[in-house]
Amino acid sequence: MMRKSLKALQRASWGLHNRCPKNIATNISILKEHGVPQSSIAALIRHHLNVASSNTEKFAGYVDKVVKMGFNPRQFTFINARMVFNQLNFKTLEQKVEVYKKWGLSEDEIWSGFRKHPLFLQLSEKKIMSAMDFLVNKMCWQPGDVAQVPSAILYSLEKRIFPRCSVIRVLQLKGLIKQVPLSCVVVTTEKLFLDRFVIKFQDQVPQLLNIYHGKTDLLELGFGFEETNG
Fold first, then answer.
1. Mean pLDDT in each 10-residue stretch from start to end of the chain (230 residues)?
2. Does 117 lie in the same domain as 67?
3. Could you tell me which PANTHER family the record lists for this protein (predicted)?
């Protein structure tokens, strides 16, 4: 099985001459000893060769840290967490925790969100603040809802979150739906979202598809997100 991972390494030809094959083989062995599946190892080598070939002592230390935090080696979140620790030191992670705390989240909630999706703490402070402001202040989800579905905050505010929430906002103000779980709005596939919230209500609100595609502004229909604060 290690041969498959080494083949993935060969395909990642960029910068290969600067890497140490011995480190890679040892690091792969470390991951395999912890039960990390072949698919995750191959993905790490293909997309993050610099990490796969990094100093073995540091590599093992980061892996141990991820294990102690309760990540399941069989899941790809284990590799994601390993990547985050490679890119951010603990002080920086603590700073990100403080940003989420500003929204009333407890450390337990924040680290729980991190365990569900490690990139939850890799986001910039600007991205965290803008997404939380919209989801909490404009859409009335609780901060804890975001921690429960941490992948939601990773999506683009302009390309995904705002278009979908615009549709939801109109339906709510027209009394056609009540509060919807965050995962059903942001995380669900485009097809499911369109089926549940656009096509289903198109007779009552013909402009929904245009709203979704940004061709019709909410203000043109007399709606706005500010009303959620009232």
1. 52 47 88 95 89 91 92 94 87 94 96 94 96 95 97 96 95 94 97 98 95 83 56
2. no
3. CGI-12 PROTEIN-RELATED, MITOCHONDRIAL TRANSCRIPTION TERMINATION FACTOR FAMILY PROTEIN
